[in-house]
Inverse folding.
């Protein structure tokens, strides 16, 4: 999916991802202004956060909370907003080439090798665990309009893992154009209904 973010929106998304990684807490406009020296008001940052949420790059666990990156938000951060370190990149490529045998290793073996490489690069102990879907429960469900006729479903678990999926809305009758504000209002009503019915249920991958 393509996102045309202006410079400020890119900076706000980048700061939000970094702040969430550092704190594991939903990120609010006030903390972004204080921690990242934005030369704009908290209201302007809130407007950017709202735009990024509507684009499906952030979500709000509940009404009064800050924002948390979605899978798409992390992807934009990794692909477009991180500054690559060429020396580290060359080292990673060499380690992947020398230590991982993609033809002969099992999936568990590949994960073990990847953990060893991460430990070598970071200097820290590295653990890789598979999600325990049998004990994971739905924490929040949100439907967000991404484009006219297209909606993103975001499911947040009680461990704050996210799953997202794009869905096409049924075509309107010829000559009948869907009103964006009406669609957003209906999506919010449906999101509230889904949360009332699904919150606390077990999540399936």
């Amino acid at each position: 999916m393509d996102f045309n973010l202006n410079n400020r929106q890119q900076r706000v998304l980048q700061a939000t991802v970094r702040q969430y990684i550092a704190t594991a807490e939903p990120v609010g406009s006030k903390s972004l202004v204080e921690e990242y020296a934005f030369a704009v008001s908290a209201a302007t940052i809130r407007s950017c956060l709202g735009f990024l949420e509507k684009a499906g790059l952030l979500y709000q666990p509940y009404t009064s909370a800050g924002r948390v990156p979605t899978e798409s938000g992390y992807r934009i951060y990794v692909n477009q907003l991180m500054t690559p370190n060429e020396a580290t990149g060359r080292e990673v490529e060499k380690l992947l080439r020398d230590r991982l045998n993609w033809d002969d290793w099992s999936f568990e073996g590949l994960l073990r090798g990847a953990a060893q490489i991460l430990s070598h690069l970071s200097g820290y102990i590295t653990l890789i665990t598979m999600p325990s879907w049998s004990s994971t429960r739905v924490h929040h469900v949100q439907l967000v309009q991404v484009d006219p006729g297209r909606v993103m479903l975001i499911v947040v678990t009680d461990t704050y893992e996210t799953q997202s999926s794009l869905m096409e809305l049924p075509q309107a009758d010829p000559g009948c154009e869907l009103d964006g504000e009406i669609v957003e209002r209906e999506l919010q009503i449906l999101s509230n209904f889904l949360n009332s019915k699904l919150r606390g249920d077990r999540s399936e991958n």
Q: What stands out?
A: The helical segments are 7-23, 29-36, 42-54, 71-81, 86-99, 107-122, 180-198. The chain has a mean pLDDT of 80. The first strand starts at residue 58 and ends at 59. The domain at 7-81 is CATH 1.10.10.10 (Arc Repressor Mutant, subunit A).
